[in-house]
Amino acid sequence: MDSATPTWSAQLVDTLLYPINPVATSAVSSHSLLSPRSSPSHANLKAETASIKTQNSKRSSKKAFSKLLGAGGGANETGDEKLEPPAGPRPPPASVIALAKHFARVLGIPAESVDRQAAKAADACAGSELLGADLAAYLHLVRLDAGLTSPSDFDDPAEYAQWKATEVDALDRVISALTGSAEYSAPDCQLIQLTVAAAEGLLGKDNSGTSNPYCVVAFDGVNFVSQPATRTRSPTWNMKVALPLRSSSPDVTISVWNRSSDPRSHHRDDSFLGCLHLPASTLLASAALAPARYPLAKRSTRSHVAGTIEVSIEPVLLDSNVQLVRTKFLRFAPPNPRAAFAELLARTLEVDIGNQDTLLSDASNMGLNAVATAWRIGEHTRIVLLYEALTDLFSQGAFPATVLQTEGSEQIDRLANDAHLSNPDLTTLRDTCKTLSTLLLHNLRTFFNHPLTAKKANDLDAMTGILASMQTNRLLHKPEGDVGEIVKGLLKEALSARYLGLHAIANSPSSSSPDSPSECLITLLKSIESELASYDRHLDTIYFGYVHVPDMAAAVFFERLMPDLEGYTRSPAHARNFGDAFELYDAVAALRAVYERVDYQLAERFKLTEWFAAPLREWVAVSERKFVEWMEAAVRVDDYTRSSPVAPYSSSVLDMFTSFQQQIDFARKLRWPDADQEAQVLERLLQGISDTLARYFDAMVTKIGEDLARCRAGLANPGSASAVLAVPQPAKKKSRINLKFGKSKRGGREIDPSEIRIPVETCVKLENIDAVPNLFADLCTKTLPPSAATNGDADGESPPPTPPKSVRASTPAPVVVLARQSVTVTMQSVTNLSMTRPSTTQISARVRISGKDLGTTAPIPQARTLLWPDASKVTYYSLLPQAAVQPINAPRISAPHPELEVCVMHHLPGEINKPYLFGRGLASGNWMDNTTVDIDLGGSGRGARLGVSQISGPPFLRARVAWLSARGIDRAVALVAEQLTYDLRFRLKALARKTEPKTPIWSKPSAVFSKLHKSHRELISPPASSPTTLVPQDEDHDAALAALLSYLDVNLEILSEQCSELLSLRTVAGTWDLVPRIVESLVTDPAPTTSPSSTPVISSSSSSSHSSSSSSTSNSATSPARIAFLQAALRALRSWFSADGDGLDDVTLDTQSYRDAVAVLDHAHLSRKALEKALCDGTLVEVTAQDDGEWACRLVAAKGGRDAVDVFVARRFR
After folding, report:
1. What are phi and psi for residue 9, nearest 5 degrees?
2. CA triplet 615, 617, 621: central angle to 5 degrees?
3. How far apart are CA 306 and CA 293, in angstroms?
4. What pLDDT, on the 0 to 100 scale, is given for residue 206?
């Protein structure tokens, strides 16, 4: 905008200096350009102008003259004495001057100019009556249809008549308020212009002989005062006053006064220089009074008056140049008040917006209303001009659209309801709306070029609201086309441009290296997600017709995004690089969550389960391999020390389960859309973990074997021992061996490291195997809790409710990852077997699925029908091999059933660990659908029966891991037991040779262990004629066994201190189960007398003495002395393992091997013939569920009666 000072600036200042606000403004209208504001300046101005109004009303009640002069003028003898000078200078109020200076700053007017104009107004003793006179002249013009608004400005004469009546009424009230006289607005008056041009020959009142003359025109109590001339007797004023006259109007009085040069004097001291009376009738009678000089009259007989005054009268008549008439009679208004006010309004808005947050300050709002009243800018015109100015500033970005809507558009809407605009106003309004509409449409087209904020969202609401109001405003021309469709198209265009911008940013190469396609797509998805979330947050409540911006944005983005997204997810690189794939998945899932809030129908079209099924399958496969790698790495770095006092397992267990939990957490944090598919993935991971744990158990058992082998090798080389342990021992020796292993005892002794056969690391490995099932069970519970079948979040956070859908898919979701089938197989029986020689051959059954061993039963004596009553020992848990996953859209193909195979194995005597295949068979058909499966073993009616059950999910996996752990512990316990007892046979044999009886006594079989038949007891009771059996006393046995049990006590105490109580007892029980077998083997399976290299060597002296004595005594394994010793040793060992009730209980001690050993020792003294006869006629053993008679077969075979054993075994097959 041009910053030059406008030509009408002086008129503006004069208008503001003669206070008319709020008195005059309230008289004409209550309208304000903007919302009225309360401020001290406004209150001060109101008080000051109210005071001025009071003064005007007082002056109007006084009559300046009681008698008018005649046509020629003259003095009145009685009334002129009351003629007095004006009341003195009336300077504008300080608040009015401040308001004038405020607008002076807006227009670039110096403040000094305002001060000069204010002083001039004060010297003239003038006030608002001058403005009232101007408005009275304008009222006359309006009545003559010559106002600023003419009949041609309205198409309908009735509208002009309505406007004219409103304007006349407003002017009447304003003029009355300004002048305090009703004459100025009387409708039947004639408007004349009185001009007081000059005076001559006035008296000199000052010491210099001159005067400071000024004139006063008084009409109906209103005084019009001119500026005083300085030091002259012939002043020139050219003072013009418009006067409305009628026949009943009072006379017009012109008086001349001398302004005192003494600044201390009061204006009441001004001296009278003469007067002139003009009756209204004379003025009305004269069509025109040419300039003429009239002698000045006295106001009383005492007055001294001289000189003449020049006066002219001109009626206010219209001619062809209406603008000239307005300029001649309207002093305060510029030639074109409407254009001047529009410029003033625009400049004021521009300045105020730059200096404060509001559009117009209080001063600006008040001053503009005052100027509009004085310049006759109507309320409707003000609104239109304000709208035009606001539109111009809005186009410059001075304020947001919300301000334009509130301060402009809403007022225009009100105009459409209750106003008839003039043609200039209507033209301005339509041009403004056309410009604004073009601007708004452009803004909509580029609205989404930048990130959305709350402020911009409000702007969009305002812009669409303004366009909507334009469409319905009756004052405006209907736009071409539907504005709603236009806006919809522009918004789509803007959103498309926004997508292209985001796409370009996402695909722009980085400074270091170009991004991969997946990274570009991820960046694009995150940008769209942020953008759409912002639209949903800020624009959700904004509607334009049927257009909802978030819905539209979702549709536009979806339409353009899908080709890129689907194209990449179908590429081969997508499935291979699942690291990028899951980052892409997170971005797509986050975007889908936003779509669920905005447009759930589009959200359903995000095919997450289809796009990311391949990477998920690959990730599961890699995870299964990684489980094994992480397990192997954890085993390699493990030092096998306790993790903490409360966690007896070592770091490998912690490392494994930490890795497992990380993979499980990753899968859960994916928040896979389909709950069933997520459960499939989690179950498959748990299955992979269970397979890894099976490998871990094997690794622990292998390492336990390696530990024990190293320990055994160290025992062969005593110098390799690295430490000597202090092991507690009893405070005093007891009469019987009662070493309470695992109990803390007083005192301690230094022991030879060669006695230690179980390293501490072995105990920790046992604890590792034992701890895994509980940890795995907890992992299963957390991963797939019982409530996982229902839709819910494991973290307790429920997803937001899904909006109702018109159509729900009835087909199940495609399978992403197939969880492997699980099956439990129990070996029940093998039937119709034929006898195999040698008769002591044992038979086992091996179960295989798809070529993978599940397990092998323990060897049992051969028989026609083999039964396994203890199902827990022959139950196997298997995860079937993974079935192929078909493509998502391909028809489901049934996978072939896995092969179930049973192999019957023979174990020959002496080669128990080298089985030979005897029979083999495969299950036919869909064997998994049955609970019992019969398998043909290759002819002759041989067959096997297995029990089959399918337990799916975590229950099966927990049972499987517990089973694998139990098998691992059994194998480890067997290794530890073998480690503790591998030389027990040679120790017992050596002790048996060394021990000599002192007193011969009869040794009767133990009544506790002998459960034999009466005939059996009679058979084995020694007759009176039989030779005596030499049995050493128990005290001697205890002393001999003390050294033997010492190393057992030390190792079992280490075991009990390092392992849990249950695990310790389980290991002790496994060790005890070997002890009776070893004792029995000294009778049924004589072995070489030389000790193994790892056995501590007995002293040479004792060895030599034993050798010399053994040559003289019987070398038979069933010699009475040996049998007696072995019986005593077995009783002592049982007592030691019982540990006075602190060790194994009687149920655990009473094993099959113990019963067999007792039976063998009790019958070892019988001859071969007696044993053969008893075995063949059934008096030696009665085969029951608790006693299969194998001990008798072994004893008879050791005596050389193999034929009798064959007969006994053959009886089983009959």
Report:
1. -65, -40
2. 115
3. 13
4. 84
pLDDT-derived band of residue 1021, with 50, 70 and 90 as boundaries? very low
Q: Residue 753 is encoded by which pair of tokens?
A: 């490291």
The enclosing H or E element of 445 equals helix 423-445
Neighbours of 151 (CB within 10 A): 12
| CA pair distance 96, 368, nearest whole angstrom | 13
Q: How confident is the model at residue 1008 (pLDDT cuts 50, 70, 90)?
A: very low
CB 529 within 8 A of CB 590: yes
DSSP 1164: T
d(CA 747, CA 762): 26
What secondary structure, in 3-state letters, does 122-170 show?
Answer: HHCCCCHHHHHHHHHHHHHHHHCCCCCCCHHHCCCHHHHHHHHHHHHHH
Which of these ranges, 116-125, 381-390, 574-583, 1088-1097, has the smallest mean pLDDT?
1088-1097
Each residue's pLDDT tens digit, 174-194: 888 887 777 777 777 888 888
pLDDT value at 386 more than 50: yes
Opening angle at CA 1185, ends 1183 and 1188, nearest 5: 40
For residue 62, count CB atoms less than 10 angstroms from its CB and return exposed for 0-12, middle for 13-18, buried for 19 or more.
exposed
- Phi (first) and psi of residue 672, to 5 degrees: -55, 135
Q: What tokens were used for 1087?
A: 């072995």
Average pLDDT of span 529-545: 84
The torsion angles phi and psi of 215, rounded to 5 degrees, stand at: -115, 155
Closest to 196 in 3D by CA, of 252, 146, 138: 252
Distance CA 598, CA 592 (A): 10
* Angle subtended at Cα 15 by Cα 12 and Cα 19, rounded to the nearest 5 degrees: 145
- Say if CB 984 and CB 1078 are below 8 A apart: yes
pTM score: 0.67
Backbone Cα Rg of the chain: 61
Q: Is the peptide bond before 22 cis (omega within 30 degrees of 0)?
A: yes
Rounded-to-integer distance, Cα 1069 and Cα 515, Å: 65
- 976 token code pair: 């530890």
Q: How far apart are CA 327 and CA 323, in angstroms?
A: 6
Tokens linked to 240: 């013009």
Distance CA 1070, CA 1073 (A): 5
- Report the 10 Å Cβ neighbour count for 1190: 19
Residue 1088: strand, helix, or coil? coil
For 76, 119, 264, the CA distances from 268, given in Å and listed in that order, are 22, 19, 12
Contacts of 1174 (CB under 8 A, 6+ apart): 1016, 1019, 1166, 1180
Looking at residue 297, the DSSP 8-state letter turns out to be: B
Q: Which residue has the tokens 């000052």?
A: 206
> 46 to each of 20, 24, 92, 577, how far by Cα in Å?
9, 11, 13, 80
827 near 845, Cβ under 8 Å? yes
Give how far Cα 1050 sits from Cα of 465, 547, 982, 1047, Å.
94, 87, 16, 5
Residue with token string 């009665």 = 1182
Alpha helices in 998-1138 (DSSP H): 1014-1020, 1034-1058, 1061-1084, 1100-1112, 1120-1138
Tokens of 424: 């200039």
What would the 3-class secondary structure string for 698-745 be? HHHHHHHHHHHHHHHHHHHCHHHCCCCCEECCCCCCCCCCCCCCCCCC
Residue 289: CB atoms within 10 A of its CB come to 18
Cβ contact 453:500 at 8 Å: no
454-472 and 410-418 helices cross at what angle (nearest 10)? 20
φ, ψ (nearest 5 deg) of residue 470? -60, -40
CA torsion sign for 163, 166, 170, 171 is: positive
Half-sphere exposure of 735 (CA within 13 A, CB side): 3
